[in-house]
Amino acid sequence: NAGVTQTPKFQVLKTGQSMTLQCAQDMNHEYMSWYRQDPGMGLRLIHYSVGAGITDQGEVPNGYNVSRSTTEDFPLRLLSAAPSQTSVYFCASGFGGSGNEQFFGPGTRLTVL
Amino acid sequence: GENVEQHPSTLSVQEGDSAVIKCTYSDSASNYFPWYKQELGKRPQLIIDIRSNVGEKKDQRIAVTLNKTAKHFSLHITETQPEDSAVYFCAARGNQGGKLIFGQGTELSVKP
Fold first, then answer.
1. What is the bridge-based pairing of β-strands B56-59 and B62-67?
2. Residues of chain A with pLDDT under 70
3. CB pairs under 8 A between A and B
4. Cβ-based contacts of A31 with chain B (< 8 Å)
5. Which of A67, A103, B6, B87 pairs with B21 at a CA distance of 20 to 30 A?
């Protein structure tokens, strides 16, 4: 198993540009989520999904869109990038239900100029 | 919604000493409390977790305690070693298996 994969590893955008961060998992996990990590702010939940076709907002959803058309993929879209979205983005996945471990991807470091 | 507060933000101990990190949560429906360790430049990885029907759980040098009445839980690391130096995150999740909300993190430094 490849586990949770994310692409790209690094990305530099200009303000106003759009892009999609990719996340995929091959463990048949129902639950997938996106976090951003900023110094001193911990891991903040952006959006999450409890299964294909179902998504919901997290703590900081503004400026981001998601969709879940398959169990394996959970892309994160930035429609119009802003400098405030400069961060490290982590995707995570796990089996449904409360007590199951969430596995993190390697992260994407995004800089918006 | 759930809110998780974590303290302290930084912690420095001498090798061999114990370290304690504390978290509080707001949603009384939360019933799963994992702890993650993140080494520099790496992804967070689960080190221990506890469910609300258990008051304490131990795994070698690490232990977690949970006080549901007070809505707080703690991570205890004994006999600390330099390789324990990392950022530690607590988190909380409700019984519907939805959002996993993290605390702000604690940067632990173990000095040889």
1. antiparallel
2. none
3. 63
4. 97
5. A103
